[in-house]
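Last lecture ended with a question: if I hand you only a sequence, what can you say about the shape of the protein? Today we answer it with a concrete record. The protein is SDR family NAD(P)-dependent oxidoreductase. Below, first the input exactly as provided, then the predicted structure, then a couple of comments.
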Amino acid sequence: MGAKWTTADIPDQHGRVAVVTGANTGLGYETAKALAERGASVVLAVRDTAKGARAAARMRGDVTVQELDLTSLDSVRTAAAALRSRLGRIDLLINNAGVMYTPRRTTRDGFELQFGTNHLGHFALTGLLLDLMLPVPGSRVVTVSSTGHRIRAAIHFDDLQWERSYSRVGAYGQSKLANLLFTYELQRRLAPHGTTVAVAAHPGASSTELARNTPALLRPLIDGLAPLVLQTPAMGALPTLRAATDPAVLGGQYYGPGGRNQIMGHPRLVTSSPQSYDMPLQQRLWAVSEDLTGVTFPLLVTR
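The predicted structure:
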């Protein structure tokens, strides 16, 4: 395998089942498409099933669609129940969907939109599907974070939902830091089982619809620089695909672009911020997330 890892390095995926959230566009679409082309049975877990169906029609292979709205815990539970009824196993759960820099809004359950969608929705979905993964050797939970986990990022336990004041950038940073704290704590709990691992990835700077909420003052700059500094969605999806399929991947690892400042380039093993490796912070966020979502992970041991 060369230093420049590409989709050509993805091992054969026949017989494997992959669930990819937010897979009707952008990074999720490219991730699902590549897995399907390598033989996986892929489920596009998306909010808009009509868009999902159109995306599935553009892919080659065994691709189906499942409605999933991460801004609603009821929808997360309904989707998990539907997946459990139709799938006997899950080899890959790819927590890809996300929102970025949104105006102050809340989910249907009253969570700040970015924290609720990017972290809590995926936390709940993972907990509800994990027993379809634990019996499957080599199964993986891959959660997509961002370099934004370093920018104005902290877990604001005294105001998790940003009710006192709101920062688009700070709220996004909190949600992406939460993705990593969740991944590392999940891996610690999975380790004794020896079958499923938790891994994280980030796309660097990629040109996707995720940036549609960038503040208006920055839009001309972003649009002008995009061809120079933003990767295509296909390139941005490579770290996720490597985290999901490279046989050398270990639980608790983090993959991102290998270029300068992890902005562009082919995927490699990278490190996240010192804060993301803080074990008490990971454990505190886990406990709070269980309380907020009502989803626990009873099959996983705690220390």
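Comments.
1. Residues 8-293 form a domain with the Rossmann fold fold (CATH 3.40.50.720).
2. The mean pLDDT is 92.
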